[in-house]
Each structure stands twice: as C-alpha cells, then as structure tokens.
C-alpha cells in the first residue's frame, strides 16, 4: 500500500506507521511481561527491561532515521517551493531542519541509553527529543501559514498549529512533574509517593509523542506532489 502512494508520500506514512507500532508493541510486551502497570506508564518504561527493551531500542532508532529522512525531504520541498514564492527565509528553513535533526538525535539517545541503565543520559536525550521536536513542529506550522494559499490550505495549517499548541501545553507540565519525582523506577502503583507526579507527567509525555505522529501524518498530502530524482553523470576520459 505504501509503495502505491504518489511522490514520496510513503516516507511520512511509513514513519507514522512504524512509530505507532514501536510504541504499541513495546507497551503490550511490557504489560504482558508484568514489567509495567497498564495505566499510563512512561514511554521509556515500556522499553526498560528485556525482552521489550530490544524491540524498543531497535524500532525507535529506525523511527529516528525515518524522521530525519522525512524532515530532510520536507526541507527540500520548502526550498523548492520558496524558489518561486519567497515565503520564508532560507536560513529559517535550515534552522527548522537543524532543530528537527537535533530531536532525532535525542530519540537515538533515548533508544540506546535505557532508562534504568544510564538514567541521566537517557533523561537528557528525552529532553532534547521532546524539546527540539516541539520547536520543530511549531516552526513548521508557522512556515505552513506563510506558504498559504498556494502551497497549503488554511485547514491543514490550523490542524498543524493546533497540534503544536497542544504539544507545547503538554511539554511544560511533563517536565515540571517529572522534575518532582525523587526516584527512578518503572513499577509504579497508585497511592505511593510521587505517583501523581509520575501519572501526570506520563500522560503529557504520551500526548506530545502522539502529537508528533499526528503532525507528520499531515505531511503525506504535501509529499504526494514531490518527487526526488537522483541523476548520475558518467565522464569519459
């Protein structure tokens, strides 16, 4: 089905499908193994112990790669559109790409340095991934408005900005509540110390994560109009 999509729309479609599967599969394995409680664990909690840790690390690293490819194609698309419309500064487009790639790097750190093994590095990676990711989708929302009405509809722009605003609103309490948790653990039970902070922070984390997924879903239509061509030149002596 992905191969039948016009242009390069299969790239964000694959990113959305793969990332959703990564979260869901790791969650199901962790719950069935009894490693986490079913009620809103941290995303990282679902990949902290084997066997789900291997699945989580592998799939999230692939997601980071697919996200980087999607962001680079998006950068090229805006660059091409900007040649005729001049709706955004090239430096702004480049800065947005850099923020996105920084978020992908954070994802790679989260997947590689697991929560219970190296918690400080894992937390830094998560902060970079979520923080840079929110900045990226917010800048992309602004760029989308600037490209209207030629390259985007206002309806799509409104959806992107709504996702960005929700993600920003969720990111702040996610960080605040997480900073109040005094112990690193994954086996939380209701009523114990810091459980409320954990619960609220986890809800916000899942909100931001799926905000990213829904945001990239809106790229599919744009990518349908864009094709990449690789040309090779052979020079004879």
TrEMBL record:
Location, primary (coarse class): membrane
Transmembrane residue ranges: 7-34, 54-75, 87-112, 124-143, 155-177, 197-220
Keyword Secreted attached: no
Gene Ontology cellular component list: endomembrane system; lysosome
Protein's cellular compartments: Endomembrane system
Tagged with keyword Cell membrane: no
Pfam families hit by this protein: Frag1
Boundaries of every CWH43-like N-terminal domain copy: 8-225
Membrane disposition: Multi-pass membrane protein
GO biological process: regulation of autophagy
Keywords assigned: Membrane, Transmembrane, Transmembrane helix
Membership in a protein family: Belongs to the DRAM/TMEM150 family.
Name by which UniProt lists this protein: DRAM1 protein
Organism the protein comes from: Aegithalos caudatus (Long-tailed tit)
């Amino acid at each position: 089905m992905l191969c039948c999509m016009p242009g390069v729309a299969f790239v964000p479609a694959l990113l959305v499908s793969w990332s959703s599967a990564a979260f869901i599969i790791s969650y199901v394995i962790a719950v069935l193994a009894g490693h986490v409680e079913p009620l809103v664990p941290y995303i990282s909690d679902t990949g902290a112990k084997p066997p789900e840790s291997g699945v989580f690390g592998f799939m999230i690293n692939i997601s980071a790669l697919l996200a980087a490819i999607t962001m680079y194609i998006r950068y090229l698309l805006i660059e091409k559109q900007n040649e005729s419309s001049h709706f955004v500064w090239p430096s702004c487009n480049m800065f947005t790409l850099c923020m996105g790639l920084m978020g992908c790097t954070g994802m790679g750190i989260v997947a590689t340095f697991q929560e219970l093994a190296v918690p400080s590095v894992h937390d830094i990676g998560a902060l970079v991934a979520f923080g840079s990711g929110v900045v990226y989708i917010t800048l992309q929302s602004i760029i989308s408005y600037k490209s209207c009405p030629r390259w985007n509809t206002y309806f799509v722009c409104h959806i992107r900005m709504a996702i960005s605003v929700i993600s920003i609103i969720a990111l702040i309490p996610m960080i605040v509540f997480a900073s109040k948790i005094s112990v690193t653990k994954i086996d939380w039970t209701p009523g114990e110390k810091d459980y409320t902070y954990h619960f609220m922070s986890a809800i916000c984390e899942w909100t931001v994560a799926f905000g990213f997924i829904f945001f990239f879903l809106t790229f599919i239509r744009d990518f349908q109009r864009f094709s990449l061509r690789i040309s090779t030149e052979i020079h004879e002596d």
